[in-house]
Write a structure and sequence with these properties.
Elements lengths: L3 E4 L2 E4 L1 H17 L9 E5 L5 H7 L6 E6 L3 H15 L3 E4 L13 E7 L2 H7 L4 H11 E12 L8 H19 L11 H10 L3 E9 L6 H13 L5 H21 L6 E7 L1
Length: 269
Amino acid sequence: MSNVVKVYGYKTEMRPWLERERLEHETLDKVFAGIKLEGLKVLDAGTGIGYAAKYLAQRIGEGVLVTIDIDASSLEMLKRLAGKELTEKLVFIKADLRNLDFIKDNYFDLACLYYTIHTINSTTPCGVRQVLKEIRRVLRPSGLLIAVENYATFEPIDDAQQLLLELARVENEINTLISRREIDVEYDPKELCTLLVEVGYRNPAYRKIDNGSIDPTLLTWALYLKDRARGIPDQDAREKVLAKLRTLIKKAEKTGIRSSPTYAVYAKK
């Protein structure tokens, strides 16, 4: 089996993504604490790397799990992560979450958006409201939506998390210099709860899950930024950004990079 895999079109080593699974498992345990998953019809909206899909497949028993992503390469990652037996317990569909017309109304008991919402704008600009409306349509009455996201604003708890913020600022600088308009949009929990009410969900509530963790894949992200920075057309600007990244990556190799704090929102149809 190859040790290299594509993540959203970027070739990277598989190892850090496998190491990250333990962290994701801990997060998912907290998110689903007290929620009985066995026998449920579950929608995993936004497969991504496949951590949530694998976790849910291990816990639904004779239930139904449908996982959907606009990026077909998500299935490759999911197969590598979950293995053949678990992958055969679920249905993967390549589709745009704004249009789930192949799913009937009121079908799912639970919909999980695991770090999905902040990515919607970069793949389908201005699509967040429509995605939330469409997921509400396919949930049964009183069905549960669970959305897990990172806090958009926070005070770093250590140097490793400060590095995350500094790298995020460099990423924004790169996006400006290469004129990229479609970017991820993060929501703070109160903002997301307000949006859910506006599109028809009931009684949204949120809770903090963790303060972030040292994530081995974030160094891969930093190296990816370095590759993207090489595409900055202005030579002086390119060299300045690359110099910043070299300094930050050198620090990251010593301290690691801590992810943003995480929260989960729970809302009923």
